[in-house]
Amino acid sequence: MNTAAKEQSTVQKEQSMVLQKEMINANYEALATAHEDGKKISSTFVPGNLNELLMCFDFVRNLPEINALQAGMRKKSGGYIMEAERSGHSEDVCTYVKSDLGMMAKGQVGPNGMPLPTPDILLLSYTGCFTFMKWFELVRDQYDCETAMLHVPYQADGKITDNMRNFVVTQIKEQVIPALERVSGVKFDIDRLREYLKESAKAEEDLVWVLQSAKNRPSPIDAYFGGVYYCGPIFTAFRGSKATTDYYRALRAEVEARIRQGLGPVTPEGVLDEERIRLVVEGPPNWTHFRDFWKMFYDEGAVVVASSYTKVGGVYDFGFRHDPEHPIESLADYCLGCYTNHSLPARVNMLCNYMEEYSADGFLNNSIKSCNSFSAGQLLMLREIEERTGKPAGFIETDLVDPRYFSPANVKNRLESYFQMIEQKKARGDARTAA
Amino acid sequence: MKTFVGIDLGSTTTKAIVLDADETVLGRGITNSRSNYGIAAEVAKQEAFLDARFFLFRQLLKRLPALKNDLEEFLNNFEQDFRLEQYLEQLTELERICVKNCGDDRLGKDGAETRSLLAAVFRQLNDEAPGLYEPGSSRKSDFFRDIAGSQYSHASESHSQDSRISFESMLNVFDRSIIEVENRIGGGADEAKFMSALDRTCRRSNIFTALRDDLRAPLASVLATEFEETYVIGTGYGRATLPFSKEHIRSEILCHGLGAHIMHPKTATVLDIGGQDTKAIQVDPNGIVESFQMNDRCAAGCGRYLGYIADEMNLGLHELGPMAMKSTRKVRINSTCTVFAGAELRDRLSMGEKREDIVSGLHRAIILRAMSILSRSGGIRDQFTFTGGVAKNEAAVAVLKELARENYGEVQMNVNPDSIYTGALGAATFAQRVIVH
Fold first, then answer.
1. Which residues of chain B are within 8 Å of residue A395 when distances are taken between CB atoms?
2. Residues B273 and B259 in one domain
3. Per the structure, how many domains does chain B have?
């Protein structure tokens, strides 16, 4: 057995992770054969995705960001990005975009090595990230297929007004649904949507329970490195399906068992023995060195108890659930409520609350080199959170899927310094308390 | 004697500090980091312990009334003479290795002639050595590699003119041999070197000659002192490669924060510009780090940048600051990219700019980058302590003072003459506190 294969076989995984992998693989297989099977393909983004609606038209769902992050984790994105740069996309452009465009230029083969056919419709629900719009403009040019555009107003004042909701609802009814009907040839059935939304709400309930389990000490989960797995199905092609409801039920049972046994999160090297530092993390993770990056945390006993990235595909922990009684309205509220659609003050409030509710020792910002929509204002947020909570804040810089932007020595150095700073402050606090 | 050691493994130099149980600095040691952090750490530590013996000797000599007025002169001479002894010992070793590397099996018929040329070169180096360590003399560097390299190069150049052996061949012999000498951990026999140095110093003046026996006794007592390495803490970029367990390692951020606090207790903001990173650190009144920012994975604008510039200009690193201070005109330079440093320099020279104005502009460029990192960390607060190798550069200090005042008003800026040891001091203090507190 070669070293890589050996490492692979010794990596510890939760049962739910295995389940999820099966779901993702099945979806890629469905995408690969969709056209032969007489099905249509939709392409859409994670934040504000209308998965249940797309399911009503029997679309096989493709999510370009997920392809990019999968390519990153499978060490393919570097080549794709260079391919995109060769065709004129500059170094500073979002690396999800470049990975996607590079993948297309290299023959449209998906992360699992199977073909990724041309989509039949691009559904752009534009939530908080202007790059999405430009991305689909480029993709449309390439695929020459129909595009349905859903404008989602930015929550500049930190709340969703009736006008905003109505604006989205009207678009869904008058533009998105007719376009989906036209492309798919399937008539819209609102009762079918209600059924899917019922499943979504059940899964959302369990997801929230799982994410909030991190309030325990020790936390049974890592809400960032584990969290990105946990939110995978619900953020992507699966929300609304029975399989997803089952997945979250199984995940919840796993986490419940860990709490009963007083166990910490499962890392690739097994259950974490000692939780020394509890963190709230803002910003996406790095995908190209995901396991190395995670190791830098668990080697130091650092556990992420809450993260904003696990809210980009939907913020559920403040009570929002998809509502079968008000299906279109709740789709609108879902889109409007995604994390990337929140204003900076709203993000600060949310993160400060997490710091308190999850009893975090520190706040860490992973700033993404090529993601302006996430990174703009992050230092301001960091200062504000530091001031309001009195807890130490740390700042590191990596990238989504460009392996050239991940400097392990530099990131490790900063993280170690930051963790030691937290422990030093904690020790001083403990000494004061004891005195 | 219980001692506490801090070692700061920087990308350019490795520094060590030895403290006693009362947090008094007994000794400081520095060496170039080479490509071997383990050896660099050991050499720096040995140097710090040697320095500690000088410190203890000084303390004893203060009690010697007959030396009262001449104490400083004596100690300066004595230290120079000791360094000379060290240098001579290393020269002997270098010659041995050079000769070994010129065996007939390697150089064939050129071997004998090369060895004869080496003998002449090393005779000259030995003859010139005392002049290098005359009181008041200045050297471009204190590292054996640099001093011996420069002397060897000059001597080889002149001797090879009348020889069949080329200058380049002689340099090759040096390059092959120097690493072996450099990576030798201590020559041992420190006691003999101290005593020989004492003899040399005593021969310098009648006063010292007369006091020779009075000086030998305290020196012997100092040399008999046994140092116990009670606790060692390593820090700096190479810390992970140290053969220390995790408890013996601290991040350089924490060490610089605490070190700056120990040097200047009212420090609130620390800027450290080292070889490959720039750190802005905010500390509380106890020297505990509150927040920090560093350059990202790119080392643009760090100390190494100045190193490249010095190389490009064929200057010693320490000559850059004084040159920049002669500037009369501001030249704006935007790039702090180390890779483009040479191109930037040549471009400006070709445009007719003066060297001192360009060098001054380069200093300003790196400090502007540091200002950006400072602002990200929360700005400059009173008092502001500047540390790291670049803090030894007067031009960098001058620009930083000016920009700090422009952006943050009047703040007291501390630049300690021993600022290069800040990280090591912090590490040693952590070591002392682990045991004593």
1. 293, 376
2. no
3. 3
